[in-house]
Write a structure and sequence with these properties.
Elements (H helix, E strand, L loop, with lengths): L12 H5 L2 H10 L3 E3 L4 E4 L2 H8 L4 E2 L21 H8 L9 H12 L2 H6 L1 H17 L2 E3 H6 L1 H11 L9 H9 L8 H27 L5 H7 L1 E2 L2 E2 L2 H31 L2 H9 L1 H15 L5 E6 L3 E3 L2 E3 L4 E5 H4 L34 H18 L4 E2 L18 E3 L1
Parallel strand pairs: 2-10
Antiparallel strand pairs: 1-2, 3-7, 4-12, 5-6, 7-10, 8-9, 11-12
Helix pairs in contact: 4-11, 4-13, 5-12, 7-9, 7-17, 9-13, 10-11, 10-13, 11-13, 13-17, 14-15, 15-17
């Protein structure tokens, strides 16, 4: 193990609170680092991360080419099967040709026009949530604004009845617990239980929409077809779960982490408050770059690759460090400085290549609406207690964010 890797400690609360100094050491020390703790190769540089996201010698899964045994990996326990079935049929875990087919069919339902048409609804919901926080004089911004908005938007898109929406966030939180490094057996049990319950719920919702189609995404997914090729029921279920999980976990954390960043940079916050309409879209991009909600994206090595003099053999797993790439001085001028007016900002927060986030346009609409509503309705919003970070590193977010107006 090289010395720089000793600074990488994803199970340490201090590291999770501020991983960026460790990333700088990794970048200085080389392009690829073996991390024994998770049996992965850490890749910290922007250019390498960007290139490997598009390199077809790497993949999100290996089972389309190899058995677990051929790839030198242990099959998951049979009791975890409900999670792996649900996850395995989602776009994020698939490779061509299945990925190409499913993404094409989903794109017929999840069109730019569909997303853009949601803007008034998103803005209305953001305003209502901000008004509620202001009426109470403040509270937990994470629970009161950051979490409810994307859940409500995705639920509205899917056609989930208002009375059922409280189920979605706990299911999502339990499922994404399996994306952390070396998840515990307790985390696995929660993910399996949530997978079973969420699958059963969506199977019934799909059955209802087959009987009585509506103006919602589930109905559109049922209807999506191409030369008689349609989504299977499992593909629809996995797609809906992915839209919820990927479509709100990152947005929740970008909102709360972003406000914490602004509170810690009062000059930048004052400038944003003075001219929100002019600055806000670029400010949202900068907040996503500066403190990345998804710190790591993992891929399997299908065929040997060479990186910085290191041969990374087939069967290895690489950890693409998004948080480090977004602070790479080789790509971003003065990367550790928060610059809400940054013009050249090709951050990698939404990924790249065929797995680029399908929901990125919707996330941007939600973030602009959420920050905009609070800037307008709570111009003196302030932090009242230093927050604690959740223990998870991969999907990195706060426990709570207590504010006053």
């Amino acid at each position: 193990m090289d010395a720089a890797v000793s600074w990488f400690d994803p199970w340490s609360p201090a590291f999770v609170a501020d991983p960026y100094p460790a990333y700088a050491r990794l970048r200085e020390a080389g392009r690829a680092h073996w991390f024994k703790g998770s049996r992965q190769w850490l890749v910290p540089h922007y250019d390498d991360v960007s290139a490997l996201l598009r390199d077809r010698r790497l993949a999100r899964t290996y089972t389309h080419r190899f058995t677990h045994e051929e790839f030198g990996r242990t099959p998951p326990p049979p009791e975890h099967e409900p999670f792996h079935v649900l996850n395995g049929y989602g776009l994020l875990e698939l490779e061509p040709p299945d990925h190409s087919r499913i993404r094409r069919l989903i794109s017929k339902a999840f069109t730019p026009r569909t997303v853009q048409a949601l803007t008034p609804t998103v803005e209305r919901l953001a305003a209502e949530l901000a008004d509620g926080l202001v009426a109470d004089g403040g509270g937990n911004l994470l629970a009161r604004v950051a979490e409810p908005l994307p859940v409500a938007v995705i639920a509205e898109m899917l056609g989930v009845p208002p009375g059922d929406r409280a189920l979605l966030r706990p299911w999502s939180a339990d499922i994404v617990g399996m994306f952390e490094l070396n998840p515990t057996e307790e985390a696995a049990r929660k993910a399996v239980r949530a997978s079973v319950e969420f699958t059963a719920y969506l199977r019934e919702l799909i059955a209802q929409r087959r009987r009585s189609p509506g103006d919602d995404l589930v109905s559109a997914l049922i209807d999506a077809h191409d030369a008689e090729d349609r989504l299977s029921e499992q593909e629809m279920i996995s797609t809906c779960v992915l839209l919820l999980n990927a479509g709100h976990e990152a947005t929740v954390n970008t909102t709360a982490n972003g406000w914490l960043t602004l509170f810690r940079h009062p000059v930048a916050l004052a400038a944003l408050r003075a001219a929100p309409d002019a600055i806000l879209p670029r400010a949202v991009e900068e907040l996503m770059r500066y403190d990345t909600p998804l710190q790591m994206f993992e891929r399997w090595v299908m065929d040997d690759i060479e990186l910085g003099g290191e041969v990374i053999p087939r069967g290895s797993e690489v950890a693409l460090l998004f948080g480090s790439a977004n602070r790479d001085p080789a790509r971003f001028a003065d990367p550790d400085r928060l610059d809400l007016t940054r013009e050249d900002n090709p951050h990698i927060t939404f990924g790249g290549g065929i797995h680029y986030c399908l929901g990125a346009p919707l996330a941007r609409i939600e973030l602009v609406a959420s920050f905009g509503a609070l800037l307008k309705r709570a111009p003196r919003l302030r932090l009242v207690a230093e927050p604690e970070w959740k223990p998870g590193y991969v999907i990195r977010g706060l426990q709570e964010l207590l504010v006053e107006v």
